[in-house]
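Notes to self after the call with IL:
- keep both proteins in one doc
- input above output, always
- annotate only the second one for now

Protein 1:
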Amino acid sequence: MNKHQIKRVSKISLLNSNTRKLIWSWALFDFANSSYSAVIGAVIFPVYYSTYIVGEKSLGDLLWGRAISLSMFLAALMSPFLGSSRDITGYKKKTIFALVFLGSLSVSGFAFLKPLDIYLGFWLVVLANFSLETSLVIYNAYLPEVIPVSYWGRVSAWGFGLGYLGSIFSLIIALYFLNQKQFSFIWLTVSLFWILFSLPLLFSFPADIKGKFEVNLLKKAYKKTFFTLKEVFKNKNLRFFFLSYFFYLDGVNTVIIFSSLFAYKTLGFNFKELVYLYLLVQFTSLLGCFILAKPFDKFNLKKIISFLILFWFCISLLTFFTYAKTLFWVVATLAGLGLGSIQAGSRAFFSALIPSGQEGSYFGFYGLVGKSSAILGPLGFGLVSYIFKSQRPAVLWVGLLFLLGYLFFKQIDSRI
């Protein structure tokens, strides 16, 4: 915790009704976009696109990895601009809801895809995933701005926890349409879910403070970004945090993106089994978030995150040696416990490193690193899978990402 956060702690009082309302409205945004993350990003659509739209399994892996990587690359480029311009102009809610609308509209477009609409599906995925990831830059920056510092860890965990609850609900709805082979209704439901549960943030959060929108906003935003970059390089803890975060989050993102494809193609899971497997993962992820919610605020957060990174490295090795469906159910259960908790802990840990009043700029850089980290992993997994005609060697690539993340994370000052 730095001097900026220490100053904030002294101002904290008991939560009033308005703050509680802001907390739940903020957390519900995680609930809203979880429908996309679960149904489109992780479970049903990757297999649907790879199998029914593309048709050839290895090519499907390659194109899916490229679509996600491209969207993350574009989001990485935009994240600093969004973060800095957010601080300059004050346009927060307007921007975040424009992105939600664009993303949900793209998902609705999936309903019109036919077999061999490879490139239309590819670009719709890029647009939808780009919208989600860039909206999260603004969303994450709200955490240290409107939530009391002594609640950052648990509120961050509550957000991810509600996100997993949203995944469970959206997957149950998707399962109903899946049983009837009504895939178009699945995509339309996800689109509606995303918009509907984003509304509490729109109505509950403070109105945008209208700053001066200047013609040279892009220049000023990136100038502010480069200033932030210089400040990051001056700070040892921030330097090593971002290096570590880049690698271990890359591992997490790759697991999310390719886990259903691994289960489907390598272990022989069918669509229904994938949904049930993911429901189990969401439940254990929800459990993991709420178990660690208070410990995030009460104990050494660095030690908790270090343990979680090593935990993920072990999960990767265990997955490599998994050949039976039964064992993969066990692996998935364990993975779920560490999924949301490592993301929630990272968000809270980073919030304690940034100066007051610079939330947008620093979370813009946080977004830049986070989105960039989702380029290398999926590209590497898809490429290794394509070269070896097997997904198993690609799992070792994921394990290497976690190992590198752990080694860099150990360099951060242990007193934080």
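Protein 2 (the one to annotate):
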Amino acid sequence: MKKRVYSGIRATGRLHLGNYLGAVKGMLALQDEYDCIFSVVDSHTITVPYDPKTLKQSVREIILDYLAAGLDPKKCHLEIQSMVPQHIELSYYLATIYPVSRLEDLPTYKDKKAQYPKYVNMGLLYYPVLMAADVLLYKGELVPVGIDQEPHLEVMREIARKFNGMFGQTFPEPQRFKTEGEYVPSLAGGGKMSKSVEGSYITLTDDLETIRKRLAAAPTDSGQIGGELPKEGGVANLFKLLKLLKLDVEYKKFEQDYRDKKIRYTELKEVLAKAIYEELQPFQEKRKIFKEDPKLVDDIIDEGNRKCLQMADRTMGEVKKKMGLI
């Protein structure tokens, strides 16, 4: 049997280039080789401030992005997390065997508390348990996420081991699946591209002029420093984007220009803008086709949820029986 891959994206806004190069493109390359489940994890979305009036549309936009990027419903499964209630059910059962103190120590929980000091809720603390349930519900073995998610994956493995030890072998211990573009740098100069950091990203539906404007705002230096390329910061991130987009010839040219203290960042950014737009054009054209056929999209969603419900039912039957609930 094929190994099962599970991946989910929160409905916190439109997908950006970082999601596409760092997650979606890598995930979709797996659908021919693995048994894949792609989810829009809307139950996770509501752990931070959000607008209930736009959540449903945000979920829809992510699904359109998935389909436009190449998700093939004939090869993999698509679900909306809240439409498969077994995610929440399993997360509660798993929460009964996992210590609160461990969750409180997670760096991601501490970061979110600092980011939203007036919105610290039980769901935020519970987030890694629900994330574990998302993957274990389908007995996922591989999870294509960045290295920053490794603490959450360790929680999954700990929960799987604890459950297996208490109730008998049930769950695999999920492993991180490294994708080629798992870390896409921010345009703002530090860290990775993020929907929550304004000025750090390019959305998948941006036109060429918008991409140019976003890149124009990316920080650089005087161009007169020379020597080795910097390892971090705005200039380093521009060169990382050249590499991610496989612009090897251009990378070597601009690298030499940098060493010779004659680099022109306007030229580099124009090369990047055109390459990014060319990368996104097929996606944008395909997305338009799906957006203009809402019934087709509805049918894909319904069928995906139906199949995922069937798989979830099987797992929950096994879990409840082993826990003595049925």
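Annotation: Residues 294-322 form the longest helix (29 residues). The chain has two domains: 4-183+294-322, 208-287.
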